[in-house]
Records
---
Amino acid sequence: MDAPNAVSSWSDQALAELAARVRRGAPWRQALRELQPSPWGESAQHGTEDARGNWLWLVDLARWERALDVQGGIGTATAALSRHFAAVQYVDGTQSLVEFARARFCEDQCANVSCTQAGASSLPYGSGTFDCVVWDGALGRRVTGVATADPRAVLAAVLAECRRVLRPGGCLYVGIATGPPSGRVLPAGPILSTLVRMVLGVIRVVPSASWRQRVTRRVRRFEHLAVARAVPRELRAAGFARVQAYYIDPSFQQPWNIIPAGRRAVMAYERLQMTRGVLRPWLAWLSLHPVLFDCHAFLAYV
Amino acid sequence: MKRKLRELLTAAGLDGDPVGEIRDGGFLILQNYGAIPPAVRKSGYYVWNRGFNVLLLGPDNAPRYFCKCRPIADANLERETTVLQAFNRDPDLRTVVPRTSGVRDGEVQLQVGEFIRGRPYEYTVARLTERAWVASMGQILDVARTVSTRAGSLLPGLLSAPAPATLRAAATDALTELGAAGLAEDALQVLDRALARAGSVPPLLQHGDLWPANVLGHHETWWLLDFETFGIVQVPLYDVYHFVRNCWTLREPDAAASTAWVTRLASDAPDAELCRRTILYQARQLGLGPTEAAGVLAYYVVDVTAQFMRRGARRTIWEPLMREVRAAADLLRGGAALHDAMFGRG
């Protein structure tokens, strides 16, 4: 997901218009604002956007030299990386986004950023090139070069490629918004997947829109459990040795809190949230905390 | 965790090595409002000079330390750390502010404080009985007064002038800003006259943001938090007005939305009488009479509004405060003295 606007939901036409505006010389912030104004105003928008890179303070790296932003979108994560690493590569499969990113980093005079058009499943770099790789908003957009939209296949293809380009001791950040993309539920076990799909199917035929929306939201929450289990498994399958999971609350767009995905941390966090429902601490206590959060992040070390 | 952050936490050394006892998964980033290092635009100024906070859990899974991480250019955190460290040296103040240490390098500054268990007063004040509300407000304001009084000797460098300052002179800049933002000339004049009539007050370092979210209650003791703006305001009773106004707003949000607080404070409403009594009691403790107390009220509404404007807050944020300024001016129109309009009925 890209902040401040979910570029993942933009049409090709909107992305082309975005690129055209910066090509015509519009400042990149203005071009973004014109296409989708922020409800929070300019200063809040950029404050929140900048803060999205603070997860880097959680990362334990020996070297902070080279970083790669996979499916970089409008370049939010790249901008954050450029303040921590000596050299940063931005990669996206969409031509118009690469054009926009080039204009953005040229305007911001980020001399340590270079932009390349490439798919996330075939990165044009040698093995062991980077200290850190970021795939933010994973599964939020179609991956160029991967024929299927099946989340499992996409994860397998991209994670293996990310693992390849990381140096020993390097770290991959995967940010993922749940529920997963429409169509198929990630495999948290066939029974859970099937149940969620069945319930969602039943909900679609219920006439009351508000009831349908509410129940769909609740059912989707159980898909969060699937993500929490499936992504670490895929990361390990791709060859990552150590995986740390986090929740981002309330959303990628407003990443005000980053909480380790563990029972004790979530319970401590929930105790601080005085205005939330009484059920949440109980769900955390039962280790069902994945259902409480819409955004998951994973740090995976080689 | 980034090695640099680990090293800074260790160097802060509140209880030896705070990092050594933190296990994986015991590190939470909270209130993540600004990047460190901050983004710098082409023109070179900081886009957003804030940072994030960190909660460290101890081996028993309980919150152990609360850390504020800010860019080095953030003067507020530096001020707060200096203030809290000074308070930590005072045996009485040690029990009302968290134990704190600070450390910095070329990129980030860190304040490591003991985590204080307790419930923010913000979440309890609305549910208290009138009696409990008045009692707790009195206790909290007594604590704040003790802190302010001691701070004068602990941090003499913060006092801008030891001599009493006239409220009129102190409010000049703020009134000019309100005028520029559209406050009517006659309102400016009546406020200016009221401030002149109140004369001068002895300087007293104020918390500056004493509202219920910055007060924790734990086992019948009150802890004060967030001293980032401590001492910027040096007009006694300022914290009292700020605290009473916010408490009342939390208790009666609907009334606060429809009627200016100043108007309600001058009314016959039962809660208004409780608030006035609390204010006058605190004023007496500070050696101020009703005239000075009313003058500080005018100063408070003018200054707090101007502060929000200076911070670049949107109009929707400061407009309700501007309504308070207009309400104070309305009370003064027709030649009434503010202390008669406000405190004359008791």
---
Amino acid sequence: MRIGVVTFPGSNSDVDSLNALTVAGVEAVTLWHESADLGGVSAIVLPGGFSYGDYLRAGVIARFSPVMRSVKDFAASGGYVLGICNGFQVLAESGLVPGALLRNRSLRFAGRLINIRPERLDSPFTRAATGATLRVPVAHGEGCYFADDATLDQLEHDGQVLFRYVHDDGTPALDPDDPANPNGSLRAIAGVCNEAGNVAGLMPHPERMSEGILGSDGGMQLIRSLVESAAEWEAAGRPSPKAKTQVEAAR
Amino acid sequence: MSEFRYAVNVLPKPGILDPQGRAVEQSLPHLNVTTVSRVRVGRRVELTVTDDSEAGARAVVDGLARELLSNPLIEVYAIELLQGTSSAVSPKAPAR
């Protein structure tokens, strides 16, 4: 099985993502931003970095690249897409996941290890997670998750909040000025998914915690989740999101 | 066809935290300025559109402002028709 990692001009975590996928045992291939050809991949990772120099707003220029038109179609057809850091910003700017990423509340670039915890373990992006707190790096200047209150309520109600920033004891860092919340995200949201549940984004970097030699392989819980979900989707004959709902309804 | 020059002023939506504005505001006491408040920092984009009419040109700018130059979730924008080539001239610029 092949999983693609998009390289935009300015991507810098694409190689880390390729490595993490390789560690997970899949064939990881680079997808070039100027090509609309996804090469038959079973899932897509939009990696971290500073696509197109983060000009105008982080992620917005990438939205109009040829590869993103294909990624949009792929997502609409039910394929799994994971956006990490800048990839999350690209997904948000593209409207593929709800909300926006604002300038960090501190105005400082946040580059350090933080704690996140998956909110649920039954999602395609967390199914291989243990539920324990994960210690993973963040490296961003615009990661403050924002949506209006009604949207935030809806996201929580629908289980679309996948990760929150938490303290060492696992409690969420809800106060935006809490240092455990590295960017001031509302409701300590570190990652969300779309309504259909097949597109997700998060600011922290699980792919940079892919092997013990890097400090921890805890991030592999999320990478393996993506791989398992993609394999299942492939084995089921690439069902569309609608068909999936019908399958679930038929159960 | 005529050329129309516009400025698109993009600002954070009212009520949305603007850390840049806050940082500017916090620097004011160092300048002994105490009469300034509610600083908001945005972005100004100037561009020229070639079109038959001002209305047509404005529609193009409006589309761009909504799609690309601003993010409607977090920002508002206002379009301004400019006279001449640019508004970016300091009032005290020395005459040539």
---
Amino acid sequence: MAVLTDRQPGSCAIHRLLVAVMVTLPLAVAHAQGYNETEVKAAFLYHFTSYIEYPSGAFAGTSAPFVIGVLGKSGITDALQQAVKGKSVRGRAIVVKQVSIGQELLECHILFVPDAEAKSLPRILEILGDSPVLLVGESENFAAKGGMVGFFVEQKRVRFEVNLEAARRAHLTISSKLLSLARIVREKGRD
Amino acid sequence: MRSILIVCTCLWAFAVASAYSEPSPSAQDLTQLSIEELMQIEVVTASKKAQPVWDVPASVYVITADDIHRMGATSIPEVLRLVPGVHVGIIDASKWAVAVRGFNGRYSNKLLVLMDGRSVYTPFFSGVYWDAQPPLFMEDIERIEVIRGPGAALWGANAVNGVINIITKSARETQGTLWVSGAGSEEKTFGGWRVGGKLGENGYYRAYTLYQERDNLEQDREHVPNNDSWLVRRSGFRADWNRSPTESFILHGEVYTGRAGQRLRVPDVTLPGSRTVDDRYTISGYYLMGTWNRQRGNITDTLHVYYDHTGRSPIELTEFRDTVDLSWQQRIQANDRHDILWGIEYKYTSDRTFAGLLMSLQPPSRVDHIFGAFVQDDITLNDNTRLTIGSKLENNSYTAWEVQPNLRLLWKPNEKSVWWGAVSRAVRMPTRAERSVIIQAYYEGMTSGLPMISRIYGSPDFRSEEVTAYELGYRSQPHQNLSLDVSAFYNVYRNLRSFEPADPFVETTPVPHLVIPVYMNNKTYGRTYGFEVSARWNVTNNWTLDLGYANITYRLQHAPDSKDPFNLHSDSTSNTPRHQFNVGSHLNLPRGWHLDTYLFFVDRLFGMNFLPSYYRLDVSIGWQVTDRVKMRITLQNLLKRDIREFEHPLWERDSIPERAVYGTISWQF
């Protein structure tokens, strides 16, 4: 490239500074910062499994697995599978599966609704009724619109809001520890 | 030395890339963290940048606060280099040429620039005095929206080829005290101080003061300073008050003053020839702006009022201007199908000018009133399709009524992609200069024993320039780490400005000489077409690449009866590069370090003088020392010492940007 071979006198000071900076910078290596939002949400979902109390009857049997469903195709399914690999909650294995709108939603204990599926919320609420399924989403005002837990990002950090009325309707008890970390929102009426 | 530098750069880039491109700890590791710890870790939001504009049926590019911060830029035009389709060229230390989709120049006039809804272009030439837009607190900018293509149906006349909308943060987001200071080789010193606090229960304010001093650029390769140094100060405040969750007030005011330099080439018939004049001039201004916003059910009302005063006294012409603008708009989300936006606007603008060495206006003072009304309906046809139809109707004192309609269609075949198309008409009103200016342009040599100069006259018959634009766009997220935005345009122009020479005449003072009068007219027409591509790729969690490319082709010609001597063949007089591309690499390093590298390519320009194409490489290294302290070093023009980015208006001498370095430290407490 002509630009690179073009020689100009002067400005050596800047060159030296640059070289010095470039040589010394990579030495400052430590662990990397900044995580993938999806992976962080997956880790949250894993934690949620132990902070929710389900009514008796929510599980088919004592050895029935804890099912985390992800509605539609989403990158979080892989991240979740990674996150729960080899883990259990209260003696139950954790299973992650991709689900689509229909009766299989009722087989989940946690149902995650990715942003792309947010518009299906009214339909989901209709199917779930008051079944004991923790409904988690990431779209705007997900909790206020009838979901139970909604993720949002504030100052680059993942936070969540909780709609207590919706959880109560589903007979779910959310631990006070989780609630103390959440932003509590009120129902704005479903739309 | 240079080869060492390049080798070092490459080695280093590889070292850094290999060290940090490893995937971050997997989700499995994250589950080891407690839920409290999870809440504290920072995340990279994948492609969220595209989200706010995902559903917009127009070619929109958003520069975020993070983009600005990472670039380490100290002025708005420098940031605009990031946007494909925007051409930015340094004219001198305080002046830039900025245009969207072509027609660039110091007095580029087809672009509307707004700061929080306040128009900062001057009706004098319909462009922006960038030297009178001293640095904002760059930290206060929330985002800059760049709309390529006509935005006239909403924004009104002059939003012909684009709109740049600079939006600052609310006072609530700028609480506490911020101190910023910096110094460098060209950016000699700059700094500022901001305090933020609460006003009662629901109110917030910030007050700030800042200054910036820039060194002279060089006049030529022999390092002769060009007398164009720039010193500006700005102080202001913003208060935000939420009376209730649905009702808010904003009050915003600023005062600024500055001194800038320039070196002019002035035709002088007594020499005869041109002489060089060094000029130091002052710029100053102030404004006060209020906004009231209320939401009631499905209706949102916004009332926006501002008063703005500007003054400048360069040796070519002294100009003062007062503007009052009132606008009211209402958004009605009528039902699931109709989202209606309508509004009315009144603008009063009054100027006083004093003839200078090169220009005068006839009459020297003038008052203009502009009335406008617009309506737009965003119609949801079905789950995947939206139709936007709207128009602005505007009355100005030059050309009476102007209608500027547009029609836009958006189609979402699936959640990962969006198509849109638009047809719109926009006009650029005649400027004050085009109607009434007299410019002593050039010394043209001796003819029949007499010195001869050319003199440009504005014309009372000058009409609006018009464009009909056809646009098509596509956005897609083919992978969760990749977002893509493509837009194409085909613009048909009518009544563009031409310069029509007439028969020379003789003047006897100060010495007998010939004058070639050149009248501004509307005898140019033609079309431009091209496309822009931008992509953001989150290569790893710590490394993001931005890619941009823009292409434009000109097909302009003069009307058969035009005598315009300027050659419009292909790209000439257009002053816009045919190809531009940029690559931005954003690397998050450990311990709070950031490395941001920008490579820009700008194709050659065929303006008054030919300017070769160039590459420009800027590097910005940032370090978040603690939660409160940030440091940054920015290096500009690393590849070549003196790139001439833009030719100068007729009467100025060339200025050449030098290689530059500056450092910034900011402390938040």
